[in-house]
Amino acid sequence: MKPEGKSNSTQEIEDLIRARYPLIYIVSSEEERVESELEKIVVDRRNRKLIVWSITEGFFSRGGGEVYPDYDQPLKALNFILSYEDDCVFVLRDFHPYLQAPEVTRRLRDLSRALKSKRKNIILLSSVFRCPGEIEKDLSVVDFAVPDRPTIGTIIDSFMGHIGDDTPSLVRDDPKFRDRVIEAALGLTADEIENVFAKSWIRMRDFHIPTILNEKRHIIRKSGILEYYESDYDITDIGGLEALKEWLRKRENAFYPEARRYGLPLPKGILLLGIPGCGKSLTAKSIGALYKMPLLRLDMGKVMGGIVGSSEENMRKVINTAEAVAPSILWMDELEKGLSGSASSGVSDGGTTARVFGTFITWLQEKDQPVFVIATANDVSQLPPELLRKGRFDEIFFVDLPTAAEREEIIKIHLRRKGRSPEYFDVPKIVAAMSAFSGSEIEQAIVSAMYDVYDEYRGEKDIDTESIIQSAQEIIPLSYTMKEKIDALREWAKTRARRASEAASHDDDSSVVRRLEL
Ligand code: ATP
Questions:
Q1: DSSP for 353-408?
Q2: How many C-beta neighbours within 10 Å does residue 308 have?
Q3: pTM of the entire structure?
Q4: Of 465, 461, 416, which is closest to residue 445 (Cα–Cα)?
Q5: What's the pLDDT score for residue 22?
């Protein structure tokens, strides 16, 4: 099965140049790859000049010939473009810092008007998108995609060309291995791919998937906002939540072109709302293994935490990275933390939160890449209502406290995870002692019983039913201290969300009170 690929940004740039868009902003850290693609579009296919500018070298034409080192100052450079006679595409490398100067932005806007009637275009090429609001409307922004599958295939071929035709390699002998190498390299720039191929060749004398994946993890981590999340959880580690698990299982094969041909829409994502400690994050951690896709964890607080203006850039980066490694899962943890200001943000932060949120919502609604979003939140009142509207997420699930049957499953899961066999315990008795417990409190009770027994018997005796019940009795469940909040959440969810668990009602509230009265 071949998942769907990335749209072609080279084509997009060519269309903009042909349609005489005067100002184009290309966001990419791959200067050489972008400029050589531009050379193909402009010089080879259209027989026009391509002149590059940088603050250190002034103007020089790619392919040699013209050199104008004296026009190294930004304003002078723009005046030069205005007076230049021939049809030409100008590339301004790293011009974004100079857009802060009013005379530069003004001149650029003059140029935007003047160039409309000429066959001249200006391309701003930077690894980040930074641009004052007054010029933004005059620009067409293209996020230059990192290499897609066919391009990575070409990089592999040229790498093998350098290694030598008679050198054995699994990529030559095994097409499936070749596909896996390509998949592992998705999301890296051409330079990064070449470097990691060289590194894995030196280490293993062949392409080595763990080395490539490791590099990718480092690079994604370096972005500072996304984390390439590795988890050893799978769906069998979740107790209860049957309706949610079934929903997820049914979509396991829906990310591939075969499913599109069948007529299925691409799954967009889900929002999990609910009581803390009941398995929302655990579900997110398990989906990577279920869907066999990379899981990227996004901290919304970090997206919004930067200086004003860079939050938008952060959101763009997140979307680009998730699409570059697609099919992928984007896990947005504690969504409310980042978005809570969006309703009032016009006042509080100059509209940044609202704009970032707008970018996210539009992407969520319109995305055509197989990126599955799983968002988790504890507090609905902090979420902007637009997010909860139909069409944003495929489904909103409400994750409630586990029922007695679910608690039984959760207890068994945690006993097994701690290397204990549930048959040696009176599980129904433990279930009864843990009424109104969340999954996390159940785990906590088992772990603290282990500490107590280990401390007392130093390995001479193991935990048993009684010791677990005893440590359970020392825990006051959050559901008691948060009773009002939980009731309000349940009430809200009744009409607006689907239950993650199949159970229709909860049996526990009265027993919390009973327990506390004892
Ligand atoms: P929060 O909103 O506080 O992050 P959450 O709903 O995301 O809460 P999790 O992080 O998923 O809660 O749960 C914490 C831990 O509790 C899990 O790592 C797991 O060990 C245990 N746990 C919670 N729910 C379940 C469950 N349904 N099955 C098994 N274990 C569970």
A1: HHHHHHHHHHHHHH--S-EEEEEEES-GGGS-HHHHSTTSSSEEEEE----HHHHH
A2: 12
A3: 0.77
A4: 465
A5: 92
Secondary structure of residue 291 in the 3-state scheme: helix
- Residues contacting 149, CB < 8 A, separation 6+: 2, 5, 182, 186
Q: 244 CA distance to ligand 1 centroid (A)?
A: 14
Indicate whether residue 334 lines ligand 1 (CB < 6 A).
Answer: no
Q: For ligand 1, is residue 280 a contact (CB within 6 Å)?
A: yes
Which mutation among 241, 278, 336 tests ligand 1's pocket best, with the greatest number of atoms within 8 A of CB? 278
Q: Looking at ligand 1, which atom is closest to the CA of residue 285?
A: 11
Mutate to test the pocket of ligand 1, among 229, 231, 235, 281 (most ligand atoms within 8 A of CB): 281
Question: pLDDT tens digit string along 120-177?
Answer: 899 999 988 888 878 888 889 898 888 888 889 999 988 888 887 777 777 777 888 8
**Integer Cα distance of 339 and 304 in angstroms:** 8
Rounded distance from Cα 281 to ligand 1 centre (Å): 6
> Which of ligand 1's atoms lies nearest the C-alpha of 406?
27
CB-CB contact of 145 with 26 (8 Å): no
* DSSP at 231: -
Distance CA 24, CA 16 (A): 8
The answer to whether 509 touches 404, Cβ cutoff 8 Å, is no
Q: Does residue 408 have its Cβ closer than 6 Å to ligand 1? A: no
Q: Residues 90, 94, 95, CA angle at the centre, nearest 5°?
A: 70
Angle at alpha carbon of residue 165, lines to 159 and 168, rounded to 5°: 85
DSSP string, 454-489: HHHHTTSS---HHHHHHHHHT---HHHHTHHHHHHH
pLDDT digits (tens, 9 = 90+) for 315-344: 888 888 888 888 889 999 888 877 765 554
Neighbours of 39 (CB within 10 A): 17
Ligand 1 geometric centre to CA of 440 (Å): 5
Closest ligand 1 atom number to CA of residue 275? 6
Do 49 and 42 touch, CB atoms closer than 8 A?
Answer: yes
Task: Give kind and range of the element (H or E) at residue 492.
Answer: helix 483-496
**Is residue 378 lining ligand 1, measured as CB closer than 6 Å?**
yes
Rounded to the nearest angstrom, the distance between the alpha carbon of 443 and the centre of ligand 1 is 9
Paired with 372 in beta bridges are: 329
Average pLDDT across the chain, whole number: 85
Ligand 1 centroid – CA 238 distance (Å): 9
**3-state SS assignment for residue 91:** strand
> Counting every residue, how long is the chain?
518
The alpha helices in 115-205, defined as continuous H runs, are 133-136, 149-163, 170-173, 175-185, 190-204
pLDDT digits (tens, 9 = 90+) for 293-309: 889 998 887 787 765 44
Give residue 278 CA to ligand 1 midpoint distance, Å.
5
